[in-house]
Amino acid sequence: MKTRRLLSMMLFAAAAVPNASFAQVKIGLNPTAITPGAQLDVESVANTHTVVMESGAVGINTAAPQSYLDIRGTTKILSQTGTQTGVIWTGTSNMDGVEISAGAGDCWVGIQRRGGAPLHLSKPSGTIEHSFAIFSVDGVPGGVGAILYDGVAGVIYNTTSDQRLKENIHSTRFGLEALKAVRVYDYNFKSDSRKTLSTGVLAQELHKVYPQAVTVGGADEKVKPWQVDYSKLVPMLVKSVQELSDEVELLKKEKAQLSAELKLKEDAYAEFGKRLTQVENMLNGAENTKSVSR
Length: 294
What we know:
three-stranded antiparallel beta sheet, 17 strands, elongated, alpha+beta, 4 helices
């Protein structure tokens, strides 16, 4: 690598400003004076730059940093020394760490930790703003969802559902009949050597009944499997409960009507019984009178 400061220029500047104080940078054992207002620029044979600007900003793989630390390309923070093998974002790395993979217009973050949760989000005591994470698309300030602290001891998972953002609103057709068509199974995953019992649905089957809850996968189930968002089933469950409630209310009304009709019949039978008793008493009284007169 080479610095872009020519020694002759530095000597000229030193002679021109004899009372100025100079910083120094050491390359090996030889210190080199840096003129005031200059930047340090280390250029590789591949024409990449690592720079330290006069402002204190550092650029790695860029000659024009846009923040105090501007890194272009993949960055890793690893928990051990030595050579890393495997990949952090798939959990196959031989050492834990954080990797920000960047390149070709793409960027993503991977975190691997064997000994506990790889990501901790926290807020200090007395916090007044409860957001832990906000999910945004296309610059929407309010986001499409958020994870919040409930202010006591719990977490709230929100999905945007503002009526003002919706149109074509009408009652859903996905209710009890659709729910009855959803088949639920017990199973275990093939990759689970312990054969742990799970209960749930099959994504491909659910997609035929309620596609809103299913993300369609690809040809390779290990690379892009079909997936189910079970929270999407909640609206259908609510609609089903509402329909069942309506049926229960109808049955209650029918029961009340039948009970009223039965009460009328019971009262009529009771009245008929009383009159029958009276007739029987009258007949018995007539028979007794005839017997006495004889």
